[in-house]
Task: structure prediction
Amino acid sequence: MKPTDTSNPEYFHKVVDCQWGCPAHTDVPEYIRMIAQGRFSDAYMENRKSNVFPGILGRVCDRPCEPACRRGRVEDKPVAICRLKRVAADHRDDISARLPKAAEKTNGKKVALLGAGCASLTVANDLAPLGYEVTIFEALDTTGGLMRTNIPAFRLPPKVLDEEIGYILDMGVDLRFGHRIDSMKDLLEEGFDAVFVGTGAPKGKNLELPGRYDSDRIHIGIDWLESVAFEHTKEIGKRVLIIGVGNTAMDCCRTSLRLGAEDVKVMARKPRGFFKASDWELEDAEEENVEILVNHSPKEFVYEDGKLAGMKFDLMEYKIDEDGRIDRGTSTGEVTIPCDDVVLAIGQDNAFPWIERDIGIEFDKWDCPVVDETTMMCSRDGIFFGGDSAFGPKNIIWAVEHGHQAAISMHKYCQNEDLHDRLPMGLNLSSQKMGMHEWSYSNDYDGAVRRLMPHVDLKERFNKLDIEVELGFTAEQVVEEVERCLNCDIQTVFTEKLCIECDACIDICPVSCLTITPNGEEDEIRSRLKAPALNPEQALYVSDALPHTARVMVKDEDLCVHCGLCAERCPTGAWDMQKSTILIPYAADEAEPEQQQAAAGGSAK
Amino acid sequence: MTYIAKPKIAHPSLPKNELGLTTRDYEGVVSTLCAGCGHDSVTAALIQAVFELDIEPHMLAKMSGIGCSSKTPAYFVSQAHGFNSVHGRMPSVTTGAYAANRDLTYVGVSGDGDSLSIGVGQFVHAIRRNLNMCYLIENNGVYGLTKGQFSASADIGSKPKKGLPNQQEPIDPASAALALGATYIARSFSGDKEQLVPLIKGAIMHSGFSLVDVISPCVTFNDHEGSTKSYAHTREFYKHVANIDYIHPSEEIKASYAEGDAMPIHLHGGDTIVLRKVDRAYDPTSRAEAFKLLRERYNAGEITTGLLYVNDERAEMHELMHNIDTPLSQLPYEGLHPGGDELQKLQSRYR
Result:
C-alpha cells in the first residue's frame, strides 16, 4: 500500500465519524468538550456555525451522526450527541452579541427565498451579513415550514423555533407572510438577482384504495399534523389507525393520543427492521403504548351504515434473502381492524405546479427539478434549490447544508464568479501534548453506558398537546455522557523517521489496532494485522517504510478509542496526538473581510 | 513511564484460547518502565505465550529479583502467583517453591545485573540442579535503575552515554549456560516477537532449566550510537540460526517443512516443538557445535538468535531427587509429618 496521504483534509475528517456523517459537518467532539468544560454558549456557537439551529436540532435532528459514532462500534450505544446539543442550547447565556450581524450597507443585490423553512433561513443567515437584501416569501402566516407544522409541539416547542428563527430574521430580513408564489415566471419578473426555492416536499402521499373518498375521517398525515398545529383540528376518534411506519407516522400516532384517541395502532406493511422510522422515535411511541402491527398491507376501507368502520388488510408473509433484502411478499389471508379514523403517513412528494415548464427549468422523470449537487443551481442560471425541494424528502440537517452550499453559489453567482471554483476544505493539526503524561483532552476511556433521556410522566404528558416530553439531561447525566465521547478529532499522527520499532505502541494499544508488518496489498494486510481489520468502511493508516527494517506501521482506524497511549508510550515522539480542525468554507469565507467580520458576529459599525 | 492505565476495553474480534480468555485477561498492571523499554515488549511476548499455551492464571508462578527486569512480573497475569525476591536470589526462591509445588509453571524474569553479577552464583546452581523453570534474562548491558553503568554483559568496546568504552570481558549467559549443562538455551530480541513467542513457549513446556536470553534495549541509557545493545545495532547484526514452532498437542505437525530444514522434538509432557533451521548445517542438539557456533559468531560481531541448544534427555530436579509426583503442598498433614515415633526410628538408624 502507498503511505496514507494525511495532507488531504478528507483523511482525518473521515476519522471523526460523527462529523463525517453529519451533512453539515458539525464539529461534534469540539462542542462536547466545550460542554464538558461548562462552556455552553461556546458550544452553542460552535454548533450554530454549521447547523444554524442547535436548539431545534438538539431535539428533532435525524442524527446521522449517532449511527456513525465510533462508540457504537466499540460498545453498543453511540454517544447521545443529539441530546448533548440540546444541553448546549438549554444552558447557553445570552449569545445575541455573538450572532451574525446584518451588513452595514447593502451590496445592491436582491435575493428571493421561497418558503420560510430551515433551508431558506440558512441561506438568509449566510447572505444577510454579506450585504444582500433578502426577501422571504412564505405561504403561511408562520415561520419554520415543516419544522412547525409537522413536528408536534410536544417534541419541539414553538418557543425554541421562534427564538432561533428570530436570530436570523432580526438581521433585517424582509419576511412576507401569506405570500404564496403561484408563478415562477411572475416572480422572476420582479428583478431579483438570485432566487432560492426552499418550499419543501409539501404533498403527502395518498392511498388510492376502495372507499378512500367516502369518509372525512381519512386524513393525509402531514396535512392533518399541520391542521393540529394550527388548532383547526382539536380531536380525533377513540380508535385510530396510522398507515405507514416512518417518522411522520410516529408523530401522528403520538399526536392522536393527545387529541383523545385511546387505541392507536400503527399498521406496518413489512416486518420490524424494515421500518422507515428512526429507532428512537419508535421507542418513544411504544413507550406511550402505541401498538405496532407488522405484516399488514392495506386493502380497502370498510364501511357500516355509510360510516367508516374499519380497514381491511392483507396479512403478508415475506422472504428475506442472505443479503437482508426483502421480497414483495405474499398474502396469507385478510383481517379487518375496526377504527374511527385513519391517518395516512406513507411518505411525501415534491410538487411544483407553480413552476412553469417553459422557463428553462428542467424536470426529471419524477417531476423533480434537475439540481446540481454541488452548486444547488438548477438548469436555469440564478435559480437555486435546497432542502426537500431539491432532491426529495430528507431531513432538517440536510436542508441546512443545502442552504449553506446554495448561499455560497448565490454569492458567487451575484458576484459573477465561477460557481464551481469553491474554496476547498482545510485542515489544521495541533499537538495536544501538554507535558509529561499530560494531554489537553480527557483521554481516559470511560466505560459508562449511554444515559437515558428523562421523560415527563406517562399520564401527565397527555394533559395538554404541547407538554414537551423530553426533559433534557440532568447535570449529572451531562457529566457522564460527555465523558463517553472518544475525542475522535484528537488524531494519532505518525512520523516514520522517528520510529525505532520498539513495539511499545503496539503492546499498549488497548484495542489492538496497531501492527508493524511488511507492506502488501490492502486486502491481504487487513487479514494479517494484530486484530484483523474487518470493517472495510474504515481506513488503514499506513506509514512509509520504517528506517530500521523497511516494514510499515499500520493502524486500523476502526476501533481506536483515541486514548493516546501509543503517543504516551512512544519514546521518540513518532506517535503524537494532534487535534484536527476541519475548516469548512461558508459564503462569508468567499466574501470581503468586513463582511466576514459581520458574519462572525463582529460589530457592524 | 506512565500512570495512565490501559483502558478495560478490548477489540471484539480478539481471539480466545481454550479457556475462553483473551490476551487482555493475561495482562498485569500498567508498566512504569521507560516508554519504549524493550522489557515491555518481552512482557507482551510473555502474555502472548502463556495465552497461547492456555495456562490457567492461578497455575502460573512469576518469580523475580531486583532491577528494571524484575519489575516485569507485575505487568503480566495479575491473577498468577508471584514472588519478588532479594537481588539475585530468585533462583533459590524458585527452587524452594518448585520443591513444594511441582504442579505450577515457573517463569522467572531476571536481568543481566540480577543474573550475571550479584546473582551469578544462584544462576549457576539453578542450572546445575536442572530446575524446571523458564528463566528469562532481559539483557540490556547496563544498570538502568542506577542510571546506566555497564553491566557484566556489556561488550568490549561498547560505548556508554558518557565516559569511556567498556574494556572488560562480557559474560554471555547463553555460553555460560551451555558450559554449565543447561538443557534448553535460546536467545532472541525484544523487537522480534515472531521469533521470541515460540521460544518462550518452548522454554515453558521444556522439562528442566530453560534459558531465554533476550536482548532488550534500554531506551534511556543504552540506545545510542556506539552501543552494542541498541535497537539499531541489534537489528543490524542479529541473525536467526534456528527458530522453533511450538505445536499445540491438539494440532498436527504441518507437512510443509522441507526435509533437513525442520526437526520435530518431542518434549516430556507430550508437547512437540519443530525446530526450523535457518543454517542447515547447524545441529542444536550438539553441545560442542553450539559452543563453537556461539564463539565464532560472537567473534564475527554477530548476535546469534534462535534455539541454540536443546537436550530433552536429562532429568529435571524432582526426577533427579526421586520425589513423588504429588506436590508437597497437596500431601496430607500425616504424610508430611509422620510423627515422633517415626522420628525416633529414623534417628536410631544413625546411632
About this structure: The mean pLDDT of chain B is 91. The domain at 23-330 of chain B is CATH 3.40.50.970 (Rossmann fold). Chain B touches chain A at residues 2-14, 24, 34-38, 40-41, 43-44, 190-191, 193, 217, 219, 223, 231-232, 235 (CB under 8 Å).
